[in-house]
Amino acid sequence: MTFDFRSVLVTGAAGFIGYHLSRRLLANGCRVTGIDNLNDYYDVRLKEDRLSQLQEEAAFTFVRADIADLPALEATFEQSPFDVVVNLAAQAGVRYSLTNPHAYVQANIVGFVNLLECCRHRQVKHLVFASSSSVYGANTNMPFSVHHNVDHPVSLYAASKKSNELMAHTYSHLYGLRCTGLRFFTVYGPWGRPDMALFLFTRAILEDRPIQVFNHGRMRRDFTYIDDIVEGVVRVMGHLPEPNPDWSGDAPDPGTSYAPYRIYNIGNNQPVELTDFIAAIEKALGRTARKEFLDLQPGDVPATYADIDDLVRDVGFKPATTIETGIGRFIDWYRDYYRAG
Fold it and tell me: What is the C-alpha to C-alpha distance for residues 304 and 12, in angstroms, rounded to an integer?
């Protein structure tokens, strides 16, 4: 079932994906309310600069608040009815979760249940929420499918994202809240997060510092360009999840349900080895990286690879931006934003 939407709440609107999604929705004529706490997990100036661009649009309203603050979230929902809520607010990062576990409980679990409560009491038509490829954890059967069991996370970040999927399903079952979870696969592009590999590598190479290459370069990631992610999200927003009439408790399908609930992978469907990813950055920069080869880090997985058949079938979209094109666009942005190189 598809439907038109005009009023959208985007949580984490000053974040990487939230910023790009908000811009796309505004360009499509939607009214967008963005909520963000502007925390200092990474450079706040980058968040503020994203936000300043969004605030140039009359149809954009910004609320500075934390979704873990229930009264503030309730006040936001009281200001306007929302057709769709897209939850992109989260404490991100696998390695950071090893040293700051409580941040993930507050943002990713307490904040998410607050959002579920607000959505059900305000009769929101569709909740779309960010999950992550990290939920596949110890799985090695590839490509990763939403129909695979994902009960063995290897980081608290991954466990918090799996908990979001479980809580959302509960609200779909109890209250008929239509929920769609999106497992993003290694998103990159202009305005990206400074803690991600592309950003870290580009900065280090331009500053002639060595880069840390984990798992001795044998990591494989389904790097997915931001415009492809946003296109997938927008299409899913207008595609209401329906109960699966063939779902059976005797052989439960993790990706669907008897309730109005769905899970999709959004990935490039073409995993790239880390050494090849670095080579593409070197080519775009016209410089050679100095490399420090290290072992696989706790919480990391050696490979990710998305099965996107369900996404293609249901919303007619498949990511298509090549690594060379996407990295080139990021480096053009980086050099312009930082006046670098």
Answer: 25
Tokens 């409980």 sit on residue: 105
Token match 């990511």: residue? 319
| 152-158-162 Cα angle (round to 5) | 75
Q: What is the pLDDT of residue 341?
A: 58
Torsion over CA: 207, 209, 214, 217 (sign): positive
**Is 264 within 8 Å of 317 (Cβ atoms)?**
no
Catalytic choice (157, 188, 261, 305): 157
Tell me the residue length of the chain: 341
Position 322, amino acid: T
Please list, in sequence order, all residues whose beta carbon lies within 8 angstroms of the beta carbon of residue 36, skipping any fewer than 6 positions away: 11, 12, 13, 14, 15, 18, 47, 51, 62, 63, 64, 65, 89
Please give the Cα distance from 169 to 172 (Å, whole number): 5
Contact between 82 and 118 under an 8 Å Cβ cutoff? The reply is no
Query: What DSSP assignment string belongs to 144-204?
Result: B-TTS-----SSHHHHHHHHHHHHHHHHHHHH---EEEEEE--EE-TT--TTSHHHHHHHH
Position 151 scores a pLDDT of 94
- Residue 175 bears catalytic tag: no
State the chain's mean pLDDT as an integer: 94
Which residues, at least 6 apart from 93, have a Cβ–Cβ distance to it below 8 Å? 41, 157, 195
DSSP-derived 3-state class of residue 75: helix
In this prediction, residue 261 has a pLDDT band, given cuts at 50, 70 and 90, of very high
> 265 by DSSP, 3-state: which?
strand
Element (H, E) at 115: helix 111-121
